[in-house]
Write a structure and sequence with these properties.
Pfam families: adh_short (PF00106). By secondary structure, this protein is of the alpha/beta class. It has one domain (about 5-305): Rossmann fold (3-Layer(aba) Sandwich), CATH 3.40.50. The protein contains 9 helices and 8 strands.
Length: about 300
């Protein structure tokens, strides 16, 4: 496929960073966005620029705070002024919360839903007008299989990913007639290569935590338990997610699956996706809006990497 202009949110670490490098090395123009380039993200920016210079790849850090609609608009306008188009928007920026759901204050849950779901709307609102005018584009999302099969102690995170998933799904239906495709990538749990578990936010209501003596210590064992469920023939590194995204971008428009399940634990989320897609096609056919599953008949289907 020809060179694409790609915006990635949360590209300073984890999935975002690895995917940004993979796509730039594949020959695309990649705007690796993060917040506070001259402060919080300064070291990350310096590292990415050094790699770009050394490897002579088009990897360009750009300021974007996904919690700000104005910041999203400024970043998109900058890219459009330089490149004349945005072909792919990848919503990736996210945070993790881990612990007893009851012990999280409502404002904590509101915070993670804002970052992990509402931010997708902010970024899309900035980019979609240009994509609609162009009559083409790809909205890519780093979702999660967890909203299909949630683990204990992941309530706020799973809820935020479920909210983002529905927003991505419905927006995908609404932009399909403008030639804009939607792909939701659903990685399983990666306990290394990302900072999700390391930087996970804990519940702040210690009194509630103290009342759950029957679950004492179990929350802290989750990452280890997840590792024990890893399939023995899998790599278990975030590079396989980056490679999957690279391959999605390279696909011919109209042939991309709606969902790609990357399944190191063998959750078989793809089976849920397939049943849901079949029911959706049947219902939309009766509703008379089956064309919203386009572009491409494959648009409502799913793919699995296991």
């Amino acid at each position: 496929m020809s060179q694409q202009t790609i915006l990635i949110t949360g590209a300073g670490s984890g999935f975002g960073k690895v995917i940004a490098l993979e796509l730039a090395r594949a020959g695309h123009i990649v705007y690796a966005s993060m917040r506070d380039l001259g402060g919080h993200s300064e070291e990350r920016v310096t590292e990415l620029r050094a790699v770009a210079d050394e490897e002579k790849i088009a990897l360009r850090p750009v300021e974007l705070d996904v919690r700000s609609e104005e910041s999203a608009r400024v970043a998109v306008d900058l890219i459009l002024s330089r490149e004349g188009r945005i072909d792919v928007v990848m919503n990736n920026a996210a945070m993790m919360m881990h612990g007893l759901t009851e012990a999280f204050r409502p404002e904590q849950i509101a915070e993670i839903i804002d970052l992990n779901a509402i931010s997708w709307v902010r970024v899309n609102r900035a980019a979609l007008p240009a994509m609609r005018r162009a009559g083409r584009g790809l909205l890519l999302y780093i979702g999660s299989g967890i909203n299909r099969l949630p683990d204990p102690f992941t309530g706020p995170y799973a809820a935020s990913k479920a909210a983002g998933d529905v927003l991505a799904e419905v927006m995908g239906l609404e932009v399909a007639r403008y030639g804009i495709e939607t792909v939701i990538v659903q990685p399983g749990a990666y306990t290394s290569g990302t900072n999700h578990f390391k930087n996970a936010v804990s519940p702040i209501d210690a009194e509630v935590v103290s009342q759950y003596d029957r679950l004492a210590g179990l929350a802290g064992e989750l990452a280890e338990r997840l590792d024990r469920t890893n399939l023995p023939d899998r790599r278990h590194d975030v590079g396989e997610v980056a490679e999957a995204v690279r391959d999605i971008v390279a696909m011919t428009p109209g042939t991309r699956p709606r969902r790609v399940d990357i399944d190191p634990q063998g959750r078989n989320v793809c089976r849920i996706n397939d049943v849901t897609a079949e029911l959706q096609r049947d219902y939309f056919r009766r509703l008379g809006v089956e064309d919203l599953l386009q572009p491409g008949v494959e648009g409502a289907g799913s793919s699995s990497i296991r």
